[in-house]
Amino acid sequence: xxxxxxxxxxxxxxxxxxxxxxxxxxxxxxxxxxxxxxxxxxxxxxxxxxxxxxxxxxxxxxxxxxxxxxxxxxxxxxxxxxxxxxxxxxxxxxxxxxxxxxxxxxxxxxxxxxxxxxxxxxxxxxxxxxxxxxxxxxxxxxxxxxxxxxxxxxxxxxxxxxxxxxxxxxxxxxxxxxxxxxxxxxxxxxxxxxxxxxxxxxxxxxxxxxxxxxxxxxxxxxxxxxxxxxxxxxxxxxxxxxxxxxxxxxxxxxxxxxxxxxxxxxxxxxxxxxxxxxxxxxxxxxxxxxxxxxxxxxxxxxxxxxxxxxxxxxxxxxxxxxxxxxxxxxxxxxxxxxxxxxxxxxxxxxxxxxxxxxxxxxxxxxxxxxxxxxxxxxxxxxxxxxxxxxxxxxxxxxxxxxxxxxxxxxxxxxxxxxxxxxxxxxxxxxxxxxxxxxxxxxxxxxxxxxxxxxxxxxxxxxxxxxxxxxxxxxxxxxxxxxxxxxxxxxxxxxxxxxxxxxxxxxxxxxxxxxxxxxxxxxxxxxxxxxxxxxxxxxxxxxxxxxxxxxxxxxxxxxxxxxxxxxxxxxxxxxxxxxxxxxxxxxxxxxxxxxxxxxxxxxxxxxxxxxxxxxxxxxxxxxxxxxxxxxxxxxxxxxxxxxxxxxxxxxxxxxxxxxxxxxxxxxxxxxxxxxxxxxxxxxxxxxxxxxxxxxxxxxxxxxxxxxxxxxxxxxxxxxxxxxxxxxxxxxxxxxxxxxxxxxxxxxxxxxxxxxxxxxxxxxxxxxxxxxxxxxxxxxxxxxxxxxxxxxxxxxxxxxxx
Amino acid sequence: xxxxxxxxxxxxxxxxxxxxxxxxxxxxxxxxxxxxxxxxxxxxxxxxxxxxxxxxxxxxxxxxxxxxxxxxxxxxxxxxxxxxxxxxxxxxxxxxxxxxxxxxxxxxxxxxxxxxxxxxxxxxxxxxxxxxxxxxxxxxxxxxxxxxxxxxxxxxxxxxxxxxxxxxxxxxxxxxxxxxxxxxxxxxxxxxxxxxxxxxxxxxxxxxxxxxxxxxxxxxxxxxxxxxxxxxxxxxxxxxxxxxxxxxxxxxxxxxxxxxxxxxxxxxxxxxxxxxxxxxxxxxxxxxxxxxxxxxxxxxxxxxxxxxxxxxxxxxxxxxxxxxxxxxxxxxxxxxxxxxxxxxxxxxxxxxxxxxxxxxxxxxxxxxxxxxxxxxxxxxxxxxxxxxxxxxxxxxxxxxxxxxxxxxxxxxxxxxxxxxxxxxxxxxxxxxxxxxxxxxxxxxxxxxxxxxxxxxxxxxxxxxxxxxxxxxxxxxxxxxxxxxxxxxxxxxxxxxxxxxxxxxxxxxxxxxxxxxxxxxxxxxxxxxxxxxxxxxxxxxxxxxxxxxxxxxxxxxxxxxxxxxxxxxxxxxxxxxxxxxxxxxxxxxxxxxxxxxxxxxxxxxxxxxxxxxxxxxxxxxxxxxxxxxxxxxxxxxxxxxxxxxxxxxxxxxxxxxxxxxxxxxxxxxxxxxxxxxxxxxxxxxxxxxxxxxxxxxxxxxxxxxxxxxxxxxxxxxxxxxxxxxxxxxxxxxxxxxxxxxxxxxxxxxxxxxxxxxxxxxxxxxxxxxxxxxxxxxxxxxxxxxxxxxxxxxxxxxxxxx
Lengths: 800, 800
Hints:
2 copies of one chain form a homodimer. Chain A is α+β, with helices and mostly antiparallel strands. Among the domains of chain A are: 13-174, no CATH class; 582-799, Jelly Rolls (Sandwich). In chain A, β20 and β21 (571-574) form a beta hairpin. In chain A, α3 crosses α4 (54-62), α16 (423-430) packs antiparallel against α17 and α22 crosses α23. The radius of gyration of chain A is 29 Å and the shape is globular. Chains A and B meet through α4, α17 and β29 of A and α4, α17 and β29 of B. Chains A, B: It comes from Lentilactobacillus sunkii DSM 19904.
């Protein structure tokens, strides 16, 4: 077990004294205690003060061993200094670690070092001030259940007893993080309708956008809450079944495309100025909302902050149930339907209490400081909103967000969407107005026409870039003023890493602070892991950005944190990703071991194999990379380096340069980089290691504790990254070039960026193949490919 | 989609009027409305009255289609009768069903019939009284999300607005079920220590037992709450890692046992009268507890009742953290540590505020009526407590509970525990005192000695019944006064169906009401299924048993409800299980199709196969039953009936009578009944079909909606039931008989009871084999078995 902590801010003794007073661990009653042991006793009695009864508290203390032979009650019931080992024996038990399993009371420091828990730099005997400092650090140490001890205590009711005391600070900050001192049982839930500057359903009225607000009851007494806003197109319902019929069948042939001479200017999208209907007349004003709601899906990261004084706002945006408009999958209109909510939260836009009465209501309870959160489509909208530079948005926290829809659904002139997804299918999936039967009856014809047009414009058949896709490059506009925290999974093959790579590079041109976290998962949340203090990082971040607390997060938090793929529970700080700390290394392909001695390969599989693979993509992936012999052996080229003499860390965006010929007038090439070598690799989906263990507040939400655990058995290989190219788009994704049969062409294209450690003894592999059963069209066509390995090479950015 | 509803109580119009008044759907303001449409409008406005704003409510009504062309707002804004189809169009939408997906507004009744939703027996035009009756029935109809509409509305805040009105009833009952009108945000959580009449750790003081109480705040104002009590030995922590080293290795040889002449009198356990320490002196009294707690694991069935006026109490029992005593795995002492809590709740026993001060505290907030709930070990304790006839216990709801530990860990003289589990390992697993380091330090030596003695006494090596196991037959004592609701999975191979079969038969001798529910799952909860209204049944049951409301549950609820294995989402009422409605049918084994023509088979597998199967029990099970040819073909006898001409329903406990010889002086026989025939069978684990969809109260817990769905592909077979016997225990499980090599013996033994429908065209199969890789010891010994099929037969209880 390893615990990594990035969000602790080193704090001086004077500040510690003040913060311990603020949190009621110190006050006039115990500050005079001179004997370290008696002070520790008093601190322990306070730690258990959620129990009204003193005897109960002492019973709890009696249950802790201070030394192998003495419990903490008797140990602290005498004068003298505190043995460091006694302090940490007690500390480890408070953190939930078990004697004789996680540590031994005979040598607590040994286990702490192994786990990675902080130990005070002090002599073996702690004096009074050292006990205070060590106590502070202990409260700010993560426990066995993935929480800071202070957060765990808050969940157990520690702060509850002080909340009615008028001198108790609210909001309260401890080591730079907002504390769970708000009453989640009294949260106010209300709905408003923000009037946007859009009329996407062309009904002659500006689109009203429903916003669901959860705010602390304390706002009713004057507290102005900072706001976490999540633009969530899924929040009002998903048309799972209805969208199924919009799925595209990718088991179809690749076709020759008519060459063109398009330049970017030809495909650039230009916004047309449209006449907007006049705003609705404001017929009255109120501070009182008239609608409430119950949230079904719970975004646990947001819930955590509800106990800490933040308000949380959700909005589905245009085309979602109870809002106006149409879904468009990633256009500026969707972005503006997110920024409209922020403008209202910042005081710059009108909202109404309902869709009928035109009674305006202000976000009078909002501090005006907004941070966005969300994963996937939600993260995409956080990114897009930040790029606009909208006032009031202080930060976006983007988990697996897009910045470019072309790169989501296409790659170098090829369709690359799994499951036949495309922009039209996603539009239908999120158009939850359809679930409101009477509303849908009025808009049905327009909606179906809109979908038909999307289907044409997205040009699924060609896979080329066009102005439809240019309109869905949210990165195009970059007026970003918000600080950005980007989070992405290095094994995310839904939203791929080029999205965060591009976002990050675009943001580098802006005068903002950005941070990056890369983990070993697929398309996952990170806020319930034991080995990594993501929640605390976000708390530190939002406390700074939205509460304006100067907690030095910009300076103190590492710019890039990467989870190691080769060692479980290991997270490392880096100065950059694919920056000057890595150097380009060329691998001529002809110098590598050619596993099956192939240089020519047919794409076509025997019909039986094709069927088996179509129904079992896992088997196809396995056979494609496996070096143990499979039906794929003759359908790809597998190249391997020698065994590595030392660890090799790929850091950034590898690329490949190939000379390829085909026997047809169309063709595609796919390439995967593979880590070969026996290892127990990490699971890409989080595994629950303790259910309902994380207490997000006092009798508030609980969350499962998770981890990417090592798999139970060793595997011989793992794909690191991959890339695909339509040979007719060898120059770019919109210009279609001629392709003559039996003619060699040079293809230069990049992989999805990564950070990957290949261990000493492993081999780096390159697997070159054509159609991708999971990603691209795959018609099992009679096509041969020849690769001129002598004139081909791989380029790896290698960490120096 | 099918929805089965068992917990609706037919209600007359006068009672309907009163209950609709109680729930505020009717009052003086709308009872005078004569036009049916306008009354429906008023009811709809009230349904949405959680929204303060009238315009908002009308907007919601406008979102519903009443007819293909008119929304419910305009439809109800005129005089006249209500079209039945309009009523149910609106009704279906209120229930969450989607037009053009789940139903069509052109013919709502068609979908309702298919789904199984109740339609009022009324003409096409509903008059005023019919609208009222249909509205009442609609509120008591289950929605798409597995909830009654009234419960869904409560979750959305419908009742919330009335709670401060002193004329509003609390508790409130609707169609015989307690309503979610209690304020879960103010629940009181407190801990007491009940003094038991036990001293299982022999420290000269009676064992104190920690009890964690969650009670409605309304009890502080005089409300006396009925109590749901769950005795949960896992609640204070589980020693997962520590228990691992107590696992027994079952990959070991079966041994010859020394014959004996034991009678039951020789192995009967007799309780020794022990001198009990005097009770603690009561040094004071209080009504105020001094300790609080935070519950991690949430038992969603209990949580549901917290919103409905029930208190919920959890206690780990002897040997769990913060209690005294030792874990014993199923002895009377464990039962008494559960009944001690009931006695306190009923006013018959002392509890203290803490372990130190001897200040007594009564359960002053308790109505004295207690019902127990729980699954597995928890259900075992509910059963055991009921058998004692303890005062105050009005009912036990037993999900997959044991009544006999021998039948859990052994079968006919064989060990049958998967994963090498046994009584000692479970004792260690639940001995959570070990997690309190200082407490454990004092008791460690005694605990280890106790475990060593358990290991000797349980006699894992022989598998025979002895007085250790007789002491763990909780069914022995049967003074049951409580009404019983038993629930069990027909595919539960953890707690097997003989447990509920035996409990039920024992309970038949008592003057109580018992009901039984058998589902198609493994070891699962049922309270979050869409197709079955288990939660409502339990509500009806507990409202009757604990609130003493005369809701006719005894008379109205079917005695036995069984989920069909052959049709998804189908639950059927039966008068009994394996009673007079089924008749015994004999199948001579020699008349059956002998698939591999085996009558003799070796148990021993080639070493490679043995290894593969040891690591892949799923494959072993597949190969054992498969008729497609496998490595198991020569290691078993597979017998099949002809294809069935009509459905065959096995109802009760089949048995087999075999003549068997072996070439050794030891031997075991296993037999499985198998349903052969292609079908998409149900998953045995619940699948989530909609996450966090069930609202258990207003801003209270949510639960995932689940179902046993049909598997994605067809399978050729499924095991129905199985049985195992040590040939030396052919008379009973304690008397060991001689076994001579090459000599035929008659073995008569029963299968686990079941209810199973074999469809017409399927074949009933019998697979006879020896060692069971999953269940029994399996040493891969060189043993041959010969079965004299001419003198062997199967006995099936067949539903007439």
